[in-house]
Amino acid sequence: MGHGPTGETRRSPLLPGDRAPDFTLPAADREGTVSLADYRGRAPLLLGLFRGIYCPFCRRALVRMGQAWERLRPEGVDALAVVATTPENARLYFRFRLPRFPVAADAEFATHCLYGVPGLRRTDIEAELRTTPVNPTGELPAPLPIREASAALSRLDGFEPTPTDREDHTRGPLLQFLGQFLVDREGTIRWTSIECAREGLAGLGKFPTDDELLTAVRALPG
User: Fold this and answer.
1) Residue 218 within a domain
2) Per-residue pLDDT for the chain (222 aa), expressed as one digit of tens each?
3) What is the CATH number of the domain that holds 160?
4) 145 within some domain
């Protein structure tokens, strides 16, 4: 058991065979709402849960998810991302960087909590954030400590955070991890991937490979 960004008790991540919890959230790439029920009975769904727009690792993982979905679409799979920011902040970002799939906004990490996606208290990992080298997308000349890598990637992007991005960055005591869940058309989770579950903080920013996702999709029950 861990604690959510506002201190609430959190379960362990949901696993294959668990029922995917329902949710309804504001759409982040348009007006309106997005619900898990929109997909039930229609198609399997790749659901990605992200930290926020402020995070350069998340921005890249969103792009990677879009690229992966291009390979999954012929398999009949839909995709949906949930980003932890306000709908207004997300819509501002996506107005200039159109996503390839629907995105929802969840500023309070409620969906992360529903699915049990964990995080670590920043005060407990401060030394690791300053020393653990990462280069998840290979864009940097060499791996850098997490905090330095984050700043370097944002400089590469020319990213200017909004006041909401700054609030999102400091909200709560946790460094929230990312999670991906493959949900079948009946609403059962069939595959999961949690950031840093395999490598610790050295895995920050890594997204599942296309082959891993394709293998999971092709193992779905008919």
Assistant:
1) no
2) 333 443 444 458 999 999 999 999 999 999 999 999 999 999 999 999 999 999 999 999 999 999 999 999 999 999 999 999 999 999 999 999 989 999 999 999 999 999 999 999 999 999 999 999 999 999 999 999 999 999 999 999 999 999 999 999 998 888 999 999 999 999 999 999 999 999 999 999 999 999 999 999 999 987
3) 3.40.30.10
4) yes
Residue at 215 is within a domain: no
Helix (H), strand (E), coil (C) string for the chain: CEECCCCCEECCCCCCCCECCCCEEEECCCCCEEEHHHCCCCCCEEEEEECCCCCHHHHHHHHHHHHHHHHHHHHCCEEEEEECCCHHHHHHHHHHCCCCCCEEECCCCHHHHHCCCCEEEHHHHHHHHHHCEECCCCCCCCCEEHHHHHHHHHHHHCCCCCHHHHHHHHCCCEEECCEEEEECCCCEEEEEEECCCCCHHHHCCCCCCHHHHHHHHHCCCC
Burial class, 137, CB count within 10 angstroms (exposed 0-12 / middle 13-18 / buried 19+): middle
- This prediction has a pTM of 0.93
Does residue 106 form part of some domain?
yes
Residues with Cβ within 8 Å of 73's Cβ and at least 6 positions away in sequence, in order, are none
**Domain count along the chain:** 1
Q: How far apart are CA 9 and CA 159, in angstroms?
A: 33
Structural domain of 125 = 2-204
